[in-house]
Specification:
The structure holds 2 protein chains of 2 kinds.
Chain A (H helix, E strand, L loop, with lengths): L1 H21 L10 H11 L7 E4 L5 E6 L2 E8 L2 E8 H5 L3 E2 L2 E5 L7 E5 L13
Antiparallel strand pairs in A: 1-2, 2-3, 3-4, 5-6, 6-7
Chain B lengths: L5 H4 L5 H21 L9 H21 L1 H12 L10 H24 L1 H7 L20 H4 L6 H6 L3 H16 L11 H6 L3 H8 L16 H6 L24 H18 L4 H6 L13 H12 L19
Helix pairs in contact in B: 2-9, 5-6, 5-9, 6-13
Classes of the chains: A alpha+beta, B mainly alpha.
Amino acid sequence: MLYQFLGSAIAVALLVALAAWARIARPTPPLDEAAARRILADEYPQVQPTQVWIAADAAAALARAGEAALLLRRHGDGYTARKLPWTDLAAAKVDKGRVTVDIRDIGAPRFTLAWPADAAWPPEAAA
Amino acid sequence: MKSAPDHLIHAAFDPVTLAIPFFVLAVILEVLLGRFGKAKSNYETRDTLTSLTLGLGSTFSGLLTFGVPFAASLWLYQHRLFDIPMTAIWAWVAIFFLEDATYYWFHRIAHERRFWWASHVNHHSSQHYNLSTALRQTWTGGVAGTWALWLPLAFVGFPPAMIAIQKGISLVYQFWIHTETIGRMPRWFEAVFNTPSHHRVHHARNPVYLDRNYAGILIIWDKLFGTFQPELDAERPRYGLVRNLGDFNILRAVFHEWIGIGRDLVRQPRHALGWLFGPPGWSPDGSRETSAQLKAEWAGRHGPTAPPAPSAAPAVEPARP
């Protein structure tokens, strides 16, 4: 049993190393508004954002649609999105150039956005 | 109570164990084909690590939970209705179809009822669709009890060893269909068997593809029971969960739905039946979305089978903080 586990662990390590060497992840260029809207339209097709903001590192975005906020963040070479009340988003604080939003979802408990310390939060004020 | 010789109880070989070298070589081949541009293949390092570790962990979690299913199967076989010979060709043909039909219903329940979805969700938690994804096997299937669906086979009289071997054959078959490197198989094959194309649909989270193609080996069950959906050229599959996970944490992939169920039960115990056995996405106030709701919204926008038009150009100029 121990040998089987060790052999399997070595095989896993070698396959992961091979995948890293191959560099065949999907390309994830910096997000711009068009890309963010396109991804959010797939994630929440029934929601029509009126405004989209791109995070400072272009790896995340947030959008407003009425009283709802949509959050989008790069995850590996894909994206994770969540919808929450705008008031919940607005309650988050900027700390050292980052905003951490509590989603209260065990699948993605919090989203962290790179957000300049001198930029307004919530972002509506910066529009 | 009827007794049985050991070779009818314990399988002489495990198809999955025998296939492990093939699994490893096939993943290597798929990576190399992608690396050298010979076929469509995407691997992300942390996603691959998660997939393979989930596969490794599932073998050990299976060791912890196989005792009860084995004992139940053995007890029913000791009270079997018929003596089905393990050496007869007709018996293997029969178990091939019966096991595959059982798998279809197991898989359908595992998607359409939240309690069993909780044990199956980690298999769908990758945003990738490659051979490593096939190895994202359940850690909690033994606890969820879906193994009970195979018990009638032992009660009818199929030896437990025969059932175990056929289940293994089905699992090995389902490995190779987790790939984007193969487009479509010959038409006759696509009509009868589960294929990479059919199973891409199953792993896709596009609304039109949700809760479709539950087949193990034969796609005929989906056609028979109304859950078949062909892959549409204009609707590229997007893989993963309707709401994807936020990180590569293995424990989150395995347990997040179970924890979600627990939280919902504590918050609203009077809706326990709905939280446990409603479809994934069910909520008493309808504030969450089930697959049926997502599909209905999609059909409302595009018609029942029409693929969506390309996304419109953005209407608002980008704003940066």
